[in-house]
Amino acid sequence: MTDTHLDALIDEAARGMTAGEPGGDFRARVVSRIGARSGASSRMWRLSSTGVWRPAFAGLAIAVFVVAAVVIQHQVRSRVGGAVQEVRVRLKPDATAPAQLALNREPVEVRLKPDTTRERAAVGLAPDATDLAPLALAPLNVDPIAVQQLPAEDSIRIAQMPPVAPIAVAPLGVDDQGDRR
Amino acid sequence: MSDADLVARARQGDPAAFGELVDRHRSAVYRAALAALGSHAEAEDAAQDAFVLAYRRLAGFRGDASFKTWLLTIAWHQAINRRRGMTRMIRRFVQPQRDEEPDAIVERVAASGVNPEAAAQQHQLHRAIGDAIRALAPKLRDALLLAQSGDYSYEEIGAMLKTPIGTIKWRVSEARRVVKVRLREGGHL
Questions:
Q1: What are residue A180's DSSP bridge partners?
Q2: ipTM for this prediction
Q3: Which residues in chain B are closer than 8 Å to A14, comparing Cβ atoms?
Q4: Which domains does chain B have, with CATH numbers?
Q5: Which candidate in A1, A26, A38, A45 is best for mutational testing of the B interface (most B CBs within 10 A)?
């Protein structure tokens, strides 16, 4: 089989794979789809051209206006509240402000007040030990302890016991039967 | 009446004029979709979509190219968008190929009067060529099918694929070469 013949077979097979026609009612189906689309759009156009939409549109516009007004008012209120809070923050003393003022001012002579704590010490709040009078101790008046002599009692009398008689002990023995007696 | 006249009338809201355009170009649009999709049902749907879309975009048609080229470009895009859908791809591969009935083959061979053995070999070769074309890379397959369908010029194919004409011609030649290599590898030559 020649190469040209094979090419012809390939082309024929390719042609066969794309052979075919759409259905007989193809045009009708396309036109009906287009008509359905254009019908929907023309209905919208008719609705808009007759003015039926005007009351609905007016109501919708009013509703949108009211909602927008409420939203704007709410936003304004929230903004005012935020501003007040910001002012409150500014009322707090700023630690950086004095430093800036001191830098900008001319040097100022500062007179310190006399220290009154030393005067208070001299007055007597903290007395010196040398200035105190010697402490005088008054003698105590205490009576001497009186010890009374105990009265002499009679000596303890112990009755003499009678003499004990000696105990007679008999020696142990074994009888004829072997028992111990 | 020329395409340009029909387009002008269709723009003015004449549905019959656009219907005439549909009749004139429906085969070309359908075959382009069939080349892309490989399924008659899918090709018919894609072709309808292409005409509807073209009608909606008719106001944007400036006439730089012919109406047919412009329409084929829309149709090819529609078909390629369908081809990209995963479900359609799966359906395409799962769909059983419509093999010719054995009785029909026998009847055709008997009617042709050729040697039945030679006819069977030729049938197998045709089948192998079809399989090899289907197995081509999409770019090569599209160029080959569009070029061999007989409905389009290389200029029109170039506009559809947005590819220079020289590249289209090379792809067609390369597609033939690859098919022949695969036929030899499959022992059909």
A1: A174
A2: 0.81
A3: 133, 144-145, 147-149
A4: 3-92 (1.10.1740.10), 113-185 (1.10.10.10)
A5: A26
